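Onboarding guide, step 5: your first structure request.
Type a short instruction followed by the sequence, for example:

Predict the 3D structure of this protein.
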Amino acid sequence: MFVLICTALPHENIWRLRSENIDEDITAYYQDSMEHPLPGVFITFPCTHDPQWATRSPGISNAIVIAEAPYEIFSQWSDARVHKRGGDYEQLKETFAHKMFDELYRICPQVQGTVVIVVVV
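The system replies with structure tokens like these:
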């Protein structure tokens, strides 16, 4: 989840594919997900759907970006406890956060520079 200081947000949910060649994009991504961009994302701004948001959290917005990631690259930590997976795991999550940033900024450029908190789960 991204917490933003931005008010010019879309009110609709956004499903966006990287290109019209979705099969090729997914194949390339699964062959090397670290080098290829995300093949598609879902972006929503829950604050725009909540009529009480501006009263409860004035000046703050939020965004949720959901993207697919191959299980295999995370499988080595499948038996590790949450918050006990180490630096390599956190670095991998950071890499995917940057990929999601890239897509968020590509699709909604008005939010660039407004992100103040990032939570990757």
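Each response can be followed by summary notes, for example: Residues 2-118 form one domain.
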